[in-house]
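Ticket #4471: structure export looks truncated?
Reporter: QA, pipeline team
Priority: medium

Steps to reproduce: submit the single chain below to the structure queue and open the exported record.
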Amino acid sequence: MQAKRYRPNPSNEFYTEEKCHILEILNSANFNDYSLAQARVEVGVTTQWHWLKDTDELYYIISGKGLMEIGDKFKKTVKPGDAIFIPKMEKQRIENIGVNDLIFLCICTPRWEAENYLS
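Actual output as written to the record:
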């Protein structure tokens, strides 16, 4: 496979029933080992509890301030530069506790697929 640049079109961002906006950056069967998306949570919004079957996830906070909950024991404030590992089958949600949109990258391994999403 050759080197390639990926630049998502911001107009392709979509809103999910989980209560966040998603912009897929890279999610292809050609790269089955991982996927990359940008998530955006509006001020005051808490995403619904959800988990991923057979998929680990890593959040990397770009901007904003959030309260990340994973399972029953992890509850931490997150800010730009923080990376949060979310093991498969762990319930999770994030709340925007800042004054601007909370924006973070979502890296999934293997890649995110709808059938692995549970709520």
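Status: closed, not a bug. The export was complete when the record was re-opened. Leaving a note from the reviewer for reference: The longest strand covers residues 56-63.
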